[in-house]
Amino acid sequence: MRLRALSACVALLCLVTAAPAADLPNDAASKYESIVGQGTEYLIGAQAEDGSWSGYAGPAVTALAAEALMANGRTPSDPVVKKALAYVVGFAKPDGGVYGEGSNHRNYETCLAVMCLSRANKDGRYDALLKKADGFLKGLQWDDGEGHDASSLSYGGAGYGSHERPDLSNTGFFIEALKELGAGPDDPAMQRALQFVSRCQNLETEHNPTEFAAKVNDGGFYYTVAAGGSSQAGETPEGGLRSYGSMTYAGLKSMLFAGVDKDDPRVKAAYTWITKHYTLDENPGMGSSGQYYYYHIFAKALAAMGVEKLDASSGEHDWRVDLIEQLASTQRADGSWVNADERWMESDPNLVTAYSLMALSYAR
Question: Highest taxon of the source (predicted)?
């Protein structure tokens, strides 16, 4: 254990992290470097001998952790990352997916693997695997192949195998993976996914003919419109599906990645919802549930939107500084992060530290 701890410390000293953005205040820049360094040190020390983090989750946590390390300066040839990449590749299946045996999370796992391996693919070493993964993911999408035409509220989405319905969280990862695989806004799979995303927004537009749109109509997003509709934040007395933070940022990110213009009413309405509910104290509408997943999507969406400072109902916010301050205040002594709320696996410090480091990579 001493040797492992020593090697982790040496590796930390050798780590070349990307420099924080020049416009970060000195205090925030210093905190950024400190917490990223400590979080990286934690992951190095927590890696299992087989290259995994939280191997019970198949390739998912390992792919996210390896991507987080690369997003913060480590290279694919780094010994820690190299072992993790080999572990992830070991889950590649003949059907093109990258997932654990018997998994009901094939979309999530394959999407995370795609994003990780794409980042490590500068030399084309994973081209063949990624091409097969592209076909696999498109085969999972709910479309004509599953007997759903454009009138179906499931059309275009991606989801879990067990729940037999698509949802916005899965579809958001699906869109991001397609983007990494080279799909543009005109790609048919991307367009189908955008149709599903638009129908999960509480906004009356020509893109959303559902019964739920007018019941809340606040521009936010909820979990799924399919199979009768569901929001993790619950329903309004009128039967509307409540908007909440992580899904609204997921919806915004997905629309932008699918090529929707920033002046589009859907994007503007989502951004307005965000300005009205801006906070890092919780996942708006969900309390502490999924709070670190929220930080990850929050940062990715605002970076994609090109937001520097945000005029919220609570005043002007430099979201990067706010994120750094929040994560600096919640980091544990060993460099990890963990959520006291165990929902959605956020009691796992490997997962939550990976979420946090990914979020911080957008604060540079």
Answer: Bacteria
Cβ proximity of 41 and 65 under 8 Å: no
Does residue 1 sit in the same domain as residue 63?
no
For the chain, 364 residues long, the average pLDDT of each consecutive 10-residue run is 38 43 82 98 99 98 99 98 99 98 96 99 98 98 88 94 84 99 98 98 96 95 96 96 99 99 98 98 98 99 97 92 99 99 98 99 94
From CA 68, how far away is CA 87, in angstroms rounded?
Answer: 16
For residue 34, what are the domain limits?
1-46+279-364
Rounded to whole angstroms, the Cα distance separating 58 from 61 reads 8
pTM of the full predicted structure?
0.93
The CA-CA-CA angle for residues 208, 256, 124, to 5°, reads: 130
The two three-digit tokens of residue 76, written as one number: 């694919």
Count other C-beta atoms under 10 Å from residue 307's C-beta: 17
Q: Is 310 helix (H, G, I), strand (E, B) or coil?
A: strand
